Amino acid sequence: MPEGHTLFRLARDQHRAFAGREVHVTSPQGRFASEAELVDGRVLDEVTSWGKHLFAAFGPDVVHVHLGLYGKYTTGTGLPPEPRGALRMRWEGPGDDGEGVWTDLRGATACELITDGEVQLILDRLGPDPLRRSDPEKAYARISRSRVTIGALLMDQAVLAGVGNVYRAELLFRHHVSPFRPGKQLDHETWTAMWADLVTLMKAGVRSGRIVTTRPEDRTKKRGTPTRGDASYVYRRTGQPCRWCGTPIATEVMVGRNLFWCPTCQAV
Fold first, then answer.
1. Among 12, 98, 116, 268, which has the minimal tally of Cβ within 10 Å of its Cβ?
2. Within 13 Å and on the Cβ side, how many CA atoms surround 135?
């Protein structure tokens, strides 16, 4: 599932390409057809994100998208290709140079037209977003009162918006925190350091378009762009030696997703 930095990039890129212009909105698949008709030809005001949610405002009407596990946008310039398959929503606009720009949405968990009030209801259910101006103390207030493991809490979007499986595993490793530690046992100093680190990591993800959590000195290739194999400390490295202590990386399922950790560096 795309994590928060991906949605932030999508919102930024769509805003740059379409905001302030009339947008031709269609639903070749038909599942969004009636809603598309309501906003077709209207000026797009802005596109924003919060966590894993995308909001495109056409006046008081807002297109809300949650990509889920299988959702994907494809964007291009010039004439769009002939619609094929389950194409949920297509935008077409003039583009900066008049050549034309388009973006297609497929496979999203949610693609719906909602009101400003309904947007606020969604935001009220979400925790702070490290990529937005938001208060990390709101997340800690919930974490510090919970007996639920910190590994599960970090995946709860009501606690923290935008963090997914990769950032969960990597953040906990970087701060020597066991994913099995109850939230109430996480001290405030550690949380403050984790939040600051998460902000840095996710902003780097926005810039590069990928998640890289390793420091250069911990990589096989010390210079240049990190390879895929060098991009993470524990994520998808089951059985491989920990980059810090050599212990084989462990994995098990937590809240429906594979969790990765070092049993030595992240001892309970």
1. 98
2. 5
